[in-house]
């Protein structure tokens, strides 16, 4: 099982980035994928999650209306489109595999495999 996160970079506030999480060793129709982020000195926080079966989607309040999660089962890849980026979105972003219950989608211990992370830096 592997997860490869990519697409991070340096962007000005208000700009956009699209992160990708390429999965191998398992199929996305059997596992959900969550995006998490961790800023320096802060705890890892859940950003978004897409459920494997229903495709139900969850977002953290801090990114609702700005971020969009999607998946391409044919490519076994999940995307995180990030628009209207803010300084406080600066963090390392990770994707992870899991089957959390709805109320626990943002709990990192509900996920068993993690990608290596991709840095997102938003500048003023």
Number of strands: 11
Query: Largest sheet, if any?
Result: 7 strands, mixed
| Residues in helix, % | under 10%
Overall mean pLDDT stands at 96
> What's the SSE pattern?
EEEEEEEEEEE
Task: Point out poorly predicted stretches.
Answer: none
Secondary-structure map with pairings?
Elements: E1 2-6, E2 9-12, E3 17-24, E4 32-38, E5 45-50, E6 57-59, E7 67-72, E8 77-82, E9 91-98, E10 111-114, E11 118-123
Parallel strand pairs: 2-11
Antiparallel strand pairs: 1-3, 3-8, 4-5, 4-9, 5-6, 7-8, 9-10, 9-11
What does this structure look like?
- This protein is mainly β and 124 residues long.
- It is 0% helix and 51% strand.
- The strands form 2 sheets. Strands 2, 4, 5, 6, 9, 10 and 11 form a 7-stranded mixed β-sheet that branches. A 4-stranded antiparallel β-sheet has the order 1-3-8-7, with no helix packed on it.
- The relative contact order is 0.31.
Quick summary:
By secondary structure, the chain is an all-beta fold. The chain has strands at residues 2-6, 9-12, 17-24, 32-38, 45-50, 57-59, 67-72, 77-82, 91-98, 111-114, 118-123.
Defining traits:
7-stranded mixed beta sheet; mainly beta; 4-stranded antiparallel beta sheet
């Amino acid at each position: 099982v592997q997860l490869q996160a990519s697409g991070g970079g340096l962007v000005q506030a208000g700009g956009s980035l699209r992160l990708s999480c390429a999965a191998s060793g398992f199929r996305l129709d059997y596992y959900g994928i969550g995006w998490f982020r961790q800023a320096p000195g802060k705890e890892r926080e859940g950003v978004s999650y897409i459920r494997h079966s229903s495709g139900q989607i969850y977002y953290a309040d801090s990114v609702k209306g700005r971020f969009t999660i999607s998946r391409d089962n044919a490519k076994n890849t999940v995307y995180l489109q990030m628009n209207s980026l803010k300084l406080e979105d600066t963090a390392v972003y990770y994707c992870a595999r899991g089957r959390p219950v709805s109320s626990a989608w943002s709990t990192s211990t509900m996920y068993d495999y993690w990608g290596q992370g991709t840095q997102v830096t938003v500048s003023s």
